[in-house]
């Protein structure tokens, strides 16, 4: 932080080399001239660009394992979007128990990823601690509950994915191996405990203090005919959008911005930013939650929609509860299959898919040739889609808190970024925060 | 005497980040071990039930490639600079400190860090790091022999 006066103008600079408690690293600049916010830039580098190049020339069957490497926190999301896109290109439809197992795997990732964010990255903001380690000294039972909950999600990923990080058991058409009913039963007791812990988590986070910051967001998420969405559904918005994944490129646009190697995503119509992730899913799919979970959400102070990004922590906790219950339901109705996958003839084509990563919509598009080799790949992670939205939030939020001293302003700006649980590992490489006041 | 349980942390596809895993490869016939990506909650869980843990990880500390750091984590914390080297901001150093705050740190826990310089996707392991991998593996073997004969 620095302060200087030049020609009667006041210059203050806050520089933070690492924005703490986000997934990955990046850079942030806030510029304030004479008490007015004049510039906001979220600067990130985007490894998925390399992955898209890496995928070209590889076999279509390799996409789920290669893309799983993009992120250690949400590898299942990358695998799911990859296999659905390939199946779309090949005209395959995975249904029944295989489809249910994919939802189960996604439940594991949502539980694990959301719990990491709720307990280790986001809760310290609300309780006034610089880190989860500091928080653990005063809130040990809560942190232990978070670890227990996260472990339950990890166990699902371990059993179904072969391992927790970068799972290896997912393939186009299904799985390499499916679990026995007995194996899945081993998850029941930990998941029942996790469900209790998830309910307690909702109560815990709903007691936090939230800044008054309601925004009129354009929410975008999947919406399925009768499920809270993981793998399938139309892409919808609260402004009337209702399209298939194959139409994504017609309605959304990636833009290069000078200050970042990552691409910004906007709606083609009006070049507007939009919001993906738990709040979008919740708002667009509240009626797809079981009634008793709707009641838990209401008791936690949420309405049918959530427009305050600071309350995203409550929405994540509701989604963890849902994922625990959904996982238990899938396990209860599971019957082992004789063949762990379906297959079909390889043919040239373009495949599209969007699934719901913990942080929001994850779009994949692949072009494959008649031999099944990938000729072109496009991957749009949720954090790229939210990147402009985060900047827009900062414009609004920092303006409200302009009079605060730099250290407090920095705290609030970081919290506003963390509301999105940005997975900069997916879409960025290094985050610094700079506030430049003139 | 009971052998320590080795946990090697790293990503085999990111150049020097594989250092911890390569040390384990050299000691797989001598010790029980686990390759781990460093995810903190799972890491804390991984060392439960073990009284004597050795963590081996690549570090990015500004030191020259191959420099070796040895720390007794019961007596000292991992320097903040190591915490910041994680590709995820909640990493191994935080896992150790979180476990310490929760009383879940093993009675004996020792850390070997090998400074890397190339962490790029698909990158090769630096020659200096390869030398240090061999040195750390030998050091772990020697330390165990000394303990056994003590």
Write up this protein.
- The complex is a heterodimer of chains A (438) and B (150).
- By secondary structure, chain A is of the alpha+beta class.
- Chain A has a single domain, classed as Cytochrome-c3 Hydrogenase, chain B, CATH 1.10.645.10.
- Chain A is built from 15 helices and 15 strands.
- The longest helix of chain A is centred in the N-terminal third of the chain and has 32 residues, at 96-127.
- Chain A is globular, with a radius of gyration of 22 Å.
- Mean pLDDT of chain A is 87; it is low at 1-9, 11-19 and 426-433.
- Mean pLDDT of chain B is 86; it is low at 84-89.
- Chain B has 5 helices and 5 strands.
- The longest helix of chain B has 23 residues, at 127-149.
- Chain B has a 5-stranded mixed sheet, covered by helices on one side.
- Chain B has helices at residues 19-27, 40-46, 80-83, 92-102, 127-149, and strands at residues 5-9, 33-36, 52-59, 68-72, 108-115.
- Chain B has one domain (5-149): HybD-like (Rossmann fold, 3-Layer(aba) Sandwich).
- Chain B is of the alpha/beta class and 150 residues long.
- Chain B is globular, with a radius of gyration of 14 Å.
- Chains A and B meet through helix 4, helix 5 and helix 6 of A and helix 2 and helix 4 of B.
Short structural summary:
The complex is a heterodimer of chains A (438) and B (150). Chain A is an alpha+beta fold and 438 residues long. Chain A is built from 15 helices and 15 strands.
